[in-house]
């Protein structure tokens, strides 16, 4: 895992360096806000329902809204699989998205590192039905730290790094990267507030859009199902 951290750190450094050498990007600010509801079904299986509204154009214009349903199965404390579906509403056509995640988790004391590999297929309803859905491979690195202390114990601080690798018919291309830093604050036992700053930039196009995003999501953990004991 240590070598993986070195690899991603080096990758993001060169990505940012190459971006600074490009022509002036178009900059934008957006807000992504939403709600996430988690439900534990069994000891290893859980479900999640998410909804978001995303704004662009200095947070003045509608970008999209979506509903996302996913199932997560934890095979081991260091490995889990997720499958999900998302329906998005956009100005230029609605999207159907299916994805699968493989997660590798490593914990040591108050620190947690996760490497996620996502395979995503998406279809835009404005396209011809004969078109092939766009396919992306999205490796993502996540590192979090939960400090000690009477006040700080309510916080988790984290950073993420992600690349978007698109398969276009018979060719492939790295078309975007995303970096973020944020915190999760425990409002109560089952409710968390997730605040994050996201920086993302497009790669390989003439006039890339550089997004700066404020991410605000409230997460609610529903009570788990209890096994009812039969009366004797």
Write the layout of secondary structure elements.
Blueprint: H1 2-20, E1 26-40, E2 45-56, E3 61-76, E4 79-90, E5 95-108, E6 111-124, E7 134-145, E8 155-168, E9 171-188, E10 191-202, E11 209-222
Parallel strand pairs: 1-11
Antiparallel strand pairs: 1-2, 2-3, 3-4, 4-5, 5-6, 6-7, 7-8, 8-9, 9-10, 10-11
Structural class computed from helices and strand pairing? mainly beta
Termini, distance in Å? 51 Å
CATH architecture: Beta Barrel
- The tally of strands reads 11
CATH topology: Porin
Gyration radius, in Å: 19 Å
Give the helix proportion (percent range): under 10%
Morphology call = globular
- Indicate the CATH class: Mainly Beta
What oligomeric state do the depicted chains represent? single chain
Q: Please state the average pLDDT score.
A: 85
Provide the β-strand percentage band. over 45%
Overview of this structure, please?
By secondary structure, the chain is mainly β. The protein has one domain (28-222): monomeric porin ompg (Porin), CATH 2.40.160. Helix content is 8%, strand content 66%. The protein is built from one helix and eleven strands, in the order αβββββββββββ. It has one helix spanning 2-20, and strands at residues 26-40, 45-56, 61-76, 79-90, 95-108, 111-124, 134-145, 155-168, 171-188, 191-202, 209-222. The chain has an eleven-stranded mixed β-barrel. Strand 8 (155-168) and strand 9 form a beta hairpin. The chain is globular and about 50 Å long. The termini are far apart. The model is unreliable at 228-232 (pLDDT under 50).
């Amino acid at each position: 895992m240590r070598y993986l951290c070195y690899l991603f750190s080096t990758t993001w450094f060169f990505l940012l360096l190459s971006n600074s050498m490009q022509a002036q990007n178009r900059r934008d600010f957006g807000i992504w806000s939403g709600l996430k509801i988690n439900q534990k079904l069994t000891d290893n299986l859980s479900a999640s329902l998410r909804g978001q509204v995303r704004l662009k154009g200095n947070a003045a214009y509608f970008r999209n809204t979506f509903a996302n349903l996913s199932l997560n199965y934890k095979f081991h404390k260091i490995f889990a699989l997720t499958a999900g579906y998302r329906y998005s509403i956009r100005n230029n056509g609605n999207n159907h998205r299916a994805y699968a995640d493989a997660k590798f988790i490593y914990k040591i004391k108050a620190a947690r590192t996760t490497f996620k590999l996502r395979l995503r297929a998406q279809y835009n309803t404005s396209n011809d039905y004969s078109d092939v859905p766009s396919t992306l491979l999205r490796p993502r690195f996540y590192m979090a730290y939960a400090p000690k202390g009477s006040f700080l114990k309510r916080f988790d601080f984290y950073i993420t790094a992600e690349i978007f690798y698109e398969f276009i018919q018979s060719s492939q291309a790295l078309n975007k990267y995303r970096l973020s830093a944020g915190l999760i604050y425990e409002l109560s036992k089952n409710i968390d507030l997730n605040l994050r700053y996201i920086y993302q930039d497009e790669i390989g196009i003439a006039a890339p859009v550089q997004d700066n995003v404020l991410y605000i999501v409230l997460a609610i953990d529903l009570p788990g199902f209890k096994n009812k004991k039969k009366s004797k």
